[in-house]
Automatic annotation (TrEMBL):
InterPro entries: Homeodomain-like_sf (IPR009057), HTH_RpiR (IPR000281), RpiR-like (IPR047640), RpiR-like_SIS (IPR035472), SIS_dom (IPR001347), SIS_dom_sf (IPR046348), WH-like_DNA-bd_sf (IPR036388)
Name of the protein: MurR/RpiR family transcriptional regulator
Keywords annotated in UniProt: DNA-binding, Transcription, Transcription regulation
Domain SIS as annotated: residue spans: 138-278
The UniProt record lists the keyword Transcription regulation: yes
Segments of skewed composition (Basic and acidic residues): 308-318
Residues covered by region (Disordered): 299-318
Matches recorded under PROSITE patterns: HTH_RPIR (PS51071), SIS (PS51464)
Domain HTH rpiR-type: 12-88
Amino acid sequence: MVPRTKGSGNGLTIARRIAAGRHSMPSAMSKIADVVTEHPAAPVELTITELAERAGTSAATVTRFCRALGFDGYTQFRVGVASEIGRGDADESWHADIGQEFGATDPPGKVLQTLVALHVNSLESTAARLDLDNVMHVADTIAVSRHVDIYGVGGSGVIAREFQARLYRIGVNAHAWSDVHDGLTSAVMQDARCVAIGVSSTGRTDETIQMLSQAGAAGAFTVAITHDVDSWLAGIADVSLASAEPSHYLRPDDLSVKHSQLLVLDLLYLLIAQRMFSAASTRLAASAMAVSAHRRAQRTARAASASERTDDSMKETR
């Protein structure tokens, strides 16, 4: 691979960097190189998800491709491409990724108001799309399961780990997997008494699809959490729970997508806890007591005032 350097300056054009590193690129990255070589403007015109789809690979692979060429990420890569082909600069990349709703010089108040509207809309859209019968079926199955595997990569992996931690606190034997090798190893150990959940906004992440597919083949009840109910992930799952689609701006970094996924999992968690009320309540109380010694007592107004006076006195003596 081409040695990585900060930013985009290693003295070679992007085309030459690609040519220099082609012999050592994995096949998935070579597909991206093919797209960029045949259509040099593709990174400027496409988001990271769209480029990954055109190349038949994942967004994570696109990021690795960019870093192999010496860029910190996809945004820096597309700015470099835009500069080389004379199609624009950072402003063009900003508009392609974030859109017109957010300007680079917008005041904080406007940015905040726009974000609030976006996130509220995402949560409302998720609530409207959810099939509560399916949600209840999944909750019932998890409540009586022997084991729950949760698969997710990248940002979805963070969501998967959060859900695993919450289930574990109420007594559900759950594991979260982001590494495909570890996930596949766990997936083959599942059976008809197990539940496997795949979390992927697009539903096209290869690693998550592979892990969920393997768990299903082993006999587990499979669940997909994705905004695309016609995606590969949804297609292999027994049940698909729909979250909100990403907005036309802030992609691919739209955190409202993660919040919509969290809403689905939060709802599942509460319904599962209802079905395990006695055991869940006991375990929650026990875990709260276990960590209570590591939490400081709440500050009173008098203590806060005394602390402020001490700080003032220390300042005066300096």
